[in-house]
Amino acid sequence: MGNLTRPLQAEIVAERRQSERKQLRLATSVGSSADANRALIHDLSGSGLRLETDAELSVGDIIQVGLPLIGPVDAKVIWRELSFLGCDFVEPISQAAVNAALLKSSKDLGEVADNADVDEVPIGVRPTLDMITEWKIEFDREKGAKGHRVVGFRQTTDGMLIAMVSKSG
Q1: Which of 12, 55, 107, 168 has the fewest CB atoms nearer than 10 Å to its CB?
Q2: CA 169 to CA 166: how far, in whole Å?
Q3: Which domain of life is it from (predicted)?
C-alpha cells in the first residue's frame, strides 16, 4: 500500500459502551518505519484498537501504529479476520492520547452544512493537550447530550484554537 502521505481524516461514530472503547474512522499507518502501510482505525481504547489494513500481518506480530500527537505506538496483533486486526498496545496509552485521536477526527464541513448550522467555540490560546481534553469532556457532558457535535477545529494566527460545532436539525 505504500507510505501514508495523506493527512489524517476521521469520523467519530457515537456509541455507548460499558468500556472506554471509542469508535471512530481514523486513517493512519501501520508497520515499521521502513515499511508503513495505510490502515483505518475502527475503534480505540487505552489498551488497544481494531483496525483494517491490507498489510501482510499475522497474530503475534508487533507493529507500529501512528496516532495523532503521540506518533508511532507499538501494538501486538492478537487476532486477525480477513483485513481486520485486533491489537493490544505493548504499553497502554493515556486517556489524553485517546481523546487526541477523537479531537483530531472531523467530518468534511461541506457534508455538515446541508443539514446543520456550524458555530465556532473558542477553546483557548495555544491550549495544552490536557486543556483540550478537559474541554472535550465538559463539551460531551453538556452539549453532546443535547445533540451537538464537534465537526472540526481551526487555529487563528494568534494561536486561538476554535472548535467548529454543529447541531443537526
Answers
A1: 168
A2: 9
A3: Bacteria
